[in-house]
Write a structure and sequence with these properties.
599 residues; mainly alpha; 3 domains; six-stranded mixed sheet; two-stranded antiparallel sheet; 28 helices
Length: 599
């Protein structure tokens, strides 16, 4: 390329100002409703409650849910949320803060790597692009592990690259040892976040490229993996004291079975990730496709960075497609590879030339916008039946706003296909609109799928001291909003949605703990001496009739459950009156109603 045609590696003052303003808009979009939106069930409510219990107990190493040992996942993400709650209180903002900070840290790291490779302009574009991609942006809003896991995986991949390339350039090996240790430390933190998958993905991404560079041995140079043992060893010792069989559960059930079988009911077709990557990483999923000839030419020319990025994306993508367990967020760590590849294509495009992929991505956004607009305005009643907690006007309004913004952004991007800055801003606008325009709908659905209003009703009606008994149901966010565990009556522990607890039900159930067997109900229903309310599924007709017969007033619990308050003598306890003697136990149910608990 003629040097006169090459784009400047540096940013002008005007470009810097535009990027700063765009970054502020991105920050506002991420922060919007972050602390006001109710926790969705089951995942957000469950994870937030584990964080809350850590902040209360001060034990940040052994996760507990509803005061039960909960070792489905390691501790690090929970501990980060627990520390946030220690500082900010048990709020939705504190619960969501770790995911936001991890996503922003990842964007900074992607930008730093691009800046190292291609200059200031590439670094700024890559950092903002990484943060404004649909899939990572959505996961800043969810109380789930994958934003933190993605940070550690990508940090490990980047550190491995620097280890191999620094050594190849300098020859003395000193820089390599440092970055290799960083990579293994990042993988160790990933293991403490979500388990051994944090080892699988970085090594799968880097090893083929390192073999091509004939430096695969450098990935484990001079005891770097010992850092992994130093990081995870103490935690494994602490947890194994709480449960000696934990390692078998973690390695066999939570890792091997999840990846190689459909035991956890997460199977999907082998092509599952193709549409996920196309839409979840838009527009960066289509830029490399549009610039495929240049990518292939660089690959054939043995360009190390391009081969590295190809290995980062392709090998884990194929691996995830083959494995049985599939979830949308599994490919989050692959998105930065597409971002970096796209930014390389843009900054290497001559001045005045059309940027690859911009018009293709613009047309996709415009088509998606038109589709959303047409569906929302023309089929709002049908959409309403599929979206809980929102009326037709809300659905139509959200569809109109979102569809219009996507359509206009697509048109603007189509016209801005020669300027990297303008292309970035217009193509990244639709993901931001996804957060802002859908806010009313997400808020309405969140209230419907959260126990926040139920907790407010319980505290407002009965006070904070009453014992809540959940019978074969477990609104995951209710303990979080009540700030205390529930008494869970269950025949198997299934309602906690924990593979760990499910497999240890017989060891955990008991009169002294928060999980009771159905037999405990026989005396509890008629016991008016204890201030106690029952949360019962509406399908459980037999138990509902028994609670009414025991003098417990019925109240609407929302969704598919009803709330039965203390009987008249028990209610006196809230005003300081002495307890009344317990009522006699109810008569045995007819033979046909013996299974009332499981209803």
């Amino acid at each position: 390329m003629d040097p006169a045609d090459r784009r400047s590696r540096d940013l002008s003052r005007r470009e810097r100002l535009c990027l700063v303003l765009w970054a502020l808009l991105l920050g506002l979009a991420i922060a919007f409703q972050l602390g006001s939106r109710a926790l969705f069930e089951p995942d957000e409510g469950r994870n937030a409650e584990v964080m809350r219990e850590m902040s209360v107990s001060g034990d940040y190493f052994v996760p507990r849910l509803n005061d039960l040992l909960f070792l489905d996942k390691p501790f690090l993400y929970y501990a980060a949320g627990g520390l946030a709650m220690k500082a900010l209180g048990a709020t939705e903002l504190a619960a969501r803060l770790p995911a936001v900070l991890c996503t922003l840290a990842l964007a900074f790291g992607v930008g730093a790597l691009a800046r190292r490779w291609w200059g200031d302009r590439a670094g700024a574009l890559a950092g903002l692009a990484a943060a404004a991609t649909p899939l990572p942006l959505v996961y800043t809003q969810i109380v789930i592990f994958d934003a933190m896991l993605t940070l550690w995986i990508c940090a490990a991949v980047g550190a491995f690259y620097l280890a191999v390339e620094r050594d190849a350039e300098n020859g003395d090996g000193s820089a390599f040892r440092y970055w290799s240790v960083v990579a293994w430390a990042a993988m160790g933190l990933g293991v403490l976040t979500k388990g051994p998958v944090a080892l699988l993905v970085p090594l799968a991404a880097v090893l083929p490229w390192a073999l091509w560079r004939r430096r695969a041995g450098r990935l484990v140079e001079r005891g770097a993996p010992l850092v992994l043992a130093v990081l995870i060893g103490p935690w494994l010792w602490v947890v194994s004291r709480a449960d000696p069989d934990f390692l078998h559960y973690a390695l066999v059930t939570e890792t091997w079975s999840r990846l190689t079988s459909n035991e956890l009911k997460r199977d999907a077709p082998s092509w599952y990730y193709l549409p996920v990557a196309l839409l979840g990483a838009l527009p960066w999923s289509v830029v490399p496709l549009a610039g495929a000839r240049r990518v292939a030419a660089a690959f054939r020319a043995r360009e190390s960075r391009i081969r590295f990025l190809a290995s980062w994306f392709v090998v884990p993508f194929v691996l995830f497609s083959i494995l049985h367990s599939k979830r949308i967020h599994y490919i989050l760590p692959l998105v930065p590879a597409l971002v970096l590849l796209s930014i390389w294509l843009w900054v290497e495009t001559p001045n005045g030339a059309r940027l690859p992929g911009v018009r293709f991505a613009a047309m996709l956004w415009a088509v998606l916008g038109g589709t959303v607009l047409a569906l929302g305005l023309g089929a709002a009643p049908k959409l309403l039946s599929r979206v809980e907690g929102a009326d037709g006007a809300t659905v139509a309004g959200v569809a109109a706003a979102l569809g219009t913004i996507w359509l206009l952004a697509g048109v603007a991007a189509f016209l801005a296909s020669r300027s990297p800055l303008a292309a970035l801003i217009t193509l990244a606008l639709p993901p931001l609109a996804l957060l802002l325009a859908t806010a009313p709908l997400v808020e309405a659905v969140g209230e419907r799928r959260s126990a926040r209003s139920l907790a407010q009703s319980i505290d407002g009606t009965f006070g904070e001291g009453i014992e809540i008994v959940a019978v074969e149901t477990f609104p995951a966010s209710l303990p979080f909003y009540l700030e205390r565990p529930l008494v869970l009556v269950t025949a198997d522990g299934l309602w906690l949605r924990s593979n760990y607890i499910l497999r240890r039900y017989s060891q955990m159930v008991g009169e002294a703990g928060p999980m009771r067997s159905p037999a405990w109900l026989e005396g509890a229903v008629g016991d008016c001496g204890t201030p106690r309310a029952f949360l019962v599924r509406q399908k459980n007709e037999a138990l509902r009739r028994e609670l009414v017969a025991a003098g417990r007033p019925q109240r609407d619990g929302g969704r598919d459950v009803d709330l039965f308050g203390p009987c008249a003598s028990g209610e006196a306890l809230s005003s300081g009156a002495p307890p009344s003697p317990p009522s006699p136990p109810p008569p045995a149910p007819p033979a046909g109603e013996a299974g009332r608990v499981s209803g």
